[in-house]
Design goal:
This protein is of the alpha+beta class. Among the domains are: 243 residues, MutS, DNA mismatch repair protein, domain I; 107 residues, Dna Ligase, domain 1 (2-Layer Sandwich); 42 residues, no CATH class; 57 residues, no CATH class. The chain has 23 helices and 17 strands. The strands form 5 sheets. A 6-stranded mixed beta sheet has the order 7-8-1-10-11-9. The longest helix is centred in the last third of the chain and has 27 residues. It binds thymidine-5'-triphosphate (TTP) and calcium ion (CA) (2 copies). One calcium ion (CA) binds next to loops. It comes from Penicillium canariense. One of its GO terms (molecular function) is damaged DNA binding.
Length: 660
């Protein structure tokens, strides 16, 4: 038989395909959460505040240093850690353990010294008169983020196919600042582009009609990993000698980009950071903490089980809180490895169906959460507790000036000077025997500056005093909230993303419009944008085969449209120009360029999955009570840490220190 003829090419070689499909590869381009080929990075600065101080003071890296806040330590550099110095010990204990340690106090505002923060030698003994300022760290954080973005943009503009700008836009949208010292990056669209450039065989040819057919295998038998990358060991049944597949190649390219980003942060700013790279946020975040400092860890798909098996599930995002505690007591273990042997049906006997399915997936490394760039600050608060309490308006006003300065500094960072965003409400919180708060609108006609905030705060204070029982006051704080977007906010990105029925959906925002702002300044309210579908944005953020210039889209700002349907119908011709053949999609009735039909098809596929997952995630959040609980009370801590309500909370086992 010819198939057994040794002179013929091996039949195995002829049929060997990747286990991934054209469709899965293509979804990468859209940054879809539905493809197993995703590349998500998590970058976390090493000993962040400590590094900020080392850079500011120009100290060599081997100098032991800790940042103190009064007697507590809030950051410890890696040179100090071998001495046993941790956040859990006091400054005095640290000095004893390492006499040469630099104990740098955080910058402070000081009562009666106006609204400027400064580094002061005697801050640590002045808790009564000083208030911590995190401005220096926020400023460094901003610089680092900009360096990261610039480096990613540099990669994007290196793209040869003329779509560089699209990728830039897409990537900026795929960057989530998760805290003052960490970001998630969805590298998928960029990795896709690099892969296609390096491996032209991946470009879909006309013969590849079946989008669910396997890709050709990667043209290599060994992945040339960088020796500096930490690779998580493969699962038990996997072998390093096995031929790589495209998920490995995705990680290889992703690791190269992350390495370049980290190098840029070091070269330009002299900060070291650690990174995790994996197919989703959960794995990437666990990965970045694995090999600190100054290292990156790659969690390949074939290593996920081995990797997760070593963790307690309470260390996983969303499971650090009450839900994790409940599961621990229901199943008598905290170990992922123990829970892996519990069949889904058994999980269902103790948890509701949605939670059970979600848990079953998450401990197997299945996390489809999006990298979410919409992390705009919703309010800013500056506070101080008084022990002993304060008793006069004079004392209170000294602090109000500090609060106004503190908040104003943060508003400037947030773009108030460029009119990107401004708060509309100011609130004074005041505590005597009981807590009270009073708020007033910030007049739209005034520029928001330090003095305006101070004057408004004084007005609120007078109202509190008129109400009576203002003294003794044990805690005072000022906050601003209800932000509105100004004209220049993310102009290019927002304008680019908002087209057709997106503009339609966004122009339906429920927030009242500022009558003083021009119509062109009306950008959609944050809340409304949250409900918008990121898949849509991504799809249109990277229109394939179109040469419509991005600048065009800046004019596609969401002008209020009395007839949303007409807006949706109007948009495709505006977007695509006139010469291209179109058809009307049977599912969404949009007019689609024929050249984009596959892409559009993929988009529906991905969107269906995403909607389904989002619904499931919502259900998990709302229903994550154990079903055998006899309690009928609602809201018993069902929001896991890391969920929308949990952002910013310290991880399990960490101490949250009050910034006062
Ligand atoms: P982390 O990223 O948790 O820690 P770290 O950067 O100091 O160290 P690592 O190398 O392990 O990442 O926190 C970032 C900064 O946030 C930290 O430098 C100081 C501040 N912080 C506090 O002020 N209080 C806290 O309880 C924690 C956990 C952090
Ligand atoms: Ca850190
Ligand atoms: Ca961190």
């Amino acid at each position: 038989m010819s198939s057994e003829d040794p002179l013929n090419a091996s039949p195995n070689d002829a049929v060997k395909r990747s286990r991934y499909t054209h469709r899965q590869l293509h979804l990468l381009r859209q940054g879809s959460t539905a493809t197993p080929l995703r590349a998500i990075a998590h970058i976390d600065l090493d000993a962040f505040y400590a590094q900020c101080e080392m850079v500011r003071l120009g100290l060599p890296r081997d100098t032991p240093l800790a940042v103190r806040q009064w007697e507590s330590l809030i950051a410890v550099n890696y040179a100090a850690r071998p001495f046993g110095i941790t956040r859990m010990i006091t400054a005095a204990e640290a000095r004893k353990a390492c006499p040469n340690i630099v104990l740098q106090h955080v910058a402070t505002f000081r009562e009666g010294e106006g609204g400027r923060w400064a580094y002061r030698d005697d801050s640590f003994k002045n808790i009564k008169t000083d208030k911590v300022s995190l401005d220096p760290y926020r400023a460094e954080s901003r610089k680092i983020l900009k360096t990261i973005k610039d480096e990613l943009d540099r990669w994007c503009t290196n793209e040869p196919d003329g779509e560089a700008h699209c990728f830039t836009q897409g990537l900026s949208a795929g960057l989530e600042k998760a805290s003052i010292d960490e970001v998630f990056i969805d590298l998928s669209p960029l990795v896709y582009s690099v892969l296609l450039q390096r491996y032209p065989e991946l470009r879909p040819s006309l013969q590849d009609e079946n989008r669910d057919a396997g890709l050709p295998p990667p043209p290599t038998t060994a992945v040339p990993w960088d020796p500096e990358d930490f690779l998580v060991e493969l699962d038990l049944h996997e072998r390093e000698e096995d031929d790589p597949d495209w998920d490995d190649m995705v990680m290889l390219v992703g690791a190269e980009i992350v390495r370049a980003v980290r190098r840029a942060v070091w070269d330009e700013l002299k900060y070291t950071c650690s990174a995790g790279l994996a197919r989703n946020k959960m794995l990437a975040k666990l990965g970045s903490a694995c090999n600190k400092p100054d290292k990156q860890t790659v969690v390949r798909n074939r290593a996920v089980q081995h990797f997760l098996g070593g963790y307690k599930f309470t260390q996983i995002r969303m499971l650090g809180g009450k839900l994790g505690d409940q599961i621990t007591s229901l199943f008598g273990t905290e170990q992922v490895s123990d829970l892996l042997s519990v069949p889904l049906e058994q999980l269902r006997t103790k948890l509701d169906d949605h939670t059970a399915s979600w848990l079953y997936g998450i401990i197997r490394g299945d996390d489809r959460s999006e990298v979410n760039p919409r992390t705009q600050i919703k309010s800013m608060l500056s506070a101080k507790s008084f022990r002993p309490s304060i008793n006069s308006v004079g004392q209170a006003e000294k602090w109000l000036r500090i609060f106004a300065a503190d908040i104003y500094g943060r508003l400037v960072e947030d773009g108030v000077l460029e009119n990107r965003r401004r708060p509309r409400v100011i609130t004074l919180h005041h505590r005597t025997a009981q807590s009270r708060s009073r708020q007033i609108p910030i007049p739209a006609s005034n520029a928001v500056d330090e003095n305006l905030l101070f004057e408004l705060a004084k007005t609120l204070m007078r109202q509190v005093i008129t109400d009576g029982q203002a003294w003794p006051c044990s805690n005072l704080s000022l906050s601003v909230s209800s932000f509105e977007e100004g004209v220049s906010k993310n102009k290019a990105i927002e304008g680019f993303l908002l087209r057709g029925d997106q503009a339609k959906s966004l122009s339906h925002g429920s927030r009242p419009r500022d009558p003083n702002a021009a119509a062109s300044e009306q950008l959609p309210p944050e809340k409304k944008r949250k409900t918008d579908d990121n898949g849509i944005k991504r799809f249109f953020a990277q229109p394939p085969h179109t040469d419509s210039p991005v600048v065009d889209e800046e004019s596609a700002q969401p002008q209020p449209d009395p007839d949303p349907i007409s807006a949706a119908q109007r948009s495709p011709p505006e977007v695509h120009g006139s010469a291209m053949p179109y058809y009307t999609c049977g599912r969404c009735s949009r007019s689609i360029a024929e050249l984009e039909s596959e892409e559009h098809d993929d988009w529906h596929f991905a969107k269906d999955l995403e909607l389904q997952e989002r619904q499931e995630a919502r259900d998990v959040q709302h229903q994550s009570r154990p079903t055998n609980s006899s309690s009928s009370s609602r809201g018993t801590g069902t929001r896991g840490r890391g969920g929308r309500g949990g952002r910013g909370k310290p991880e399990r086992g960490q101490m949250r220190l009050a910034f006062q």
